[in-house]
Design goal:
mainly beta; Immunoglobulin-like; single chain; five-stranded antiparallel beta sheet; 2 helices; five-stranded mixed beta sheet; 3 domains; 263 residues
Length: 263
């Protein structure tokens, strides 16, 4: 009696993460994923009607070459939220189910940087009535005004979601900023029994309620002052080693800098 060999192939399975926002008029949409089973080798993309109308193009059985799936955002695609269904296929032809992924095209030219520490959402058209700011893709608690500021400057990725008079939510393009100010120390290195000058680049009003503290290499506090000014002179009477100056503002923001006490 003849025997028949049957080979079973596991269907592909994957976990898809939320795509990073894509700016209107430039770049690719990047969808990160993690393979869970089934060793997929190819993928297909089926866009919803709104995405097709915006110029996105369906993809059939393209090769997987990385840990993310990338597809171009049409230059003229309107800002908004779109959807795509992703299907995975392995080398034996087994297919996964459909994974529905939403992705956003963010609106350009919404954020205006006024100073190193102030961002404004452009509402010259008078179309927005409410706002929510985001930093590093996380909602900033309490940041619901037309402007957003960070004491000492910005460091990270920022965008705003503005709400129109009809309730529509419009997300701005992400801007990456590094305008962060920090405290300055002089001299460094320093010798024991010398005076260390700590310069804190804020106004007297901004420094109200702040605290200056110095720690040694194992985290012990060797100096603390609740009276912080723009320039602070501290007599260092510590042995050689590496030390950390920390200024904690009354708002909770922290600025740190290291210095060395030499032989």
């Amino acid at each position: 009696m003849a025997s028949v060999e049957v080979f079973l192939s596991e269907s592909p399975q994957a976990k898809f993460d939320a795509p990073q926002p894509t700016c209107q008029g430039s770049g690719n949409v990047v969808v990160p994923y993690t393979v869970l089973a089934g060793s997929p080798t190819n993928y297909s993309l089926t866009f919803n009607a709104a995405a097709l109308a915006a110029g996105f193009i369906n993809v059939d059985e393209a090769a997987l070459t990385s840990t993310y799936i990338s597809f171009p955002a049409p230059t003229m695609a309107p800002y908004g939220i779109y959807q795509v269904r992703i299907t995975l296929t392995n080398a034996t032809g087994c297919q996964s189910g459909e994974y529905l992924v939403s992705f956003g095209i963010h609106r350009d030219n919404m954020i205006v940087q006024m100073w190193d520490d102030v961002l404004i959402c452009d509402n010259s058209s008078h179309e927005f009535t409410a706002y929510q700011w985001f930093k590093n893709n996380q909602r900033v608690t309490g940041a619901s005004l037309q402007y957003y500021s960070e004491l000492g400057g910005f460091y990270g990725d920022y965008y705003v979601v503005a709400y129109t008079t009809t309730g529509e939510a419009i997300a701005s393009c992400v801007i990456t900023l590094n305008t962060k100010q920090n405290i300055a120390l002089a001299p460094s290195p320093i010798k024991s029994n010398q005076v260390l000058r700590v310069v804190v680049p804020f106004t007297e009003d901004q420094l109200f309620g702040s605290e200056l503290e110095i720690f040694d290499a194992i985290g012990r506090s060797i100096y603390r002052s609740p009276d912080v000014n723009g320039e602070n002179d501290v007599l260092i009477q510590s042995p050689p080693g590496v030390y950390l100056v920390r200024v904690r503002m009354h708002t909770g923001e922290v600025f740190t800098e290291k210095f060395v006490v030499s032989e």
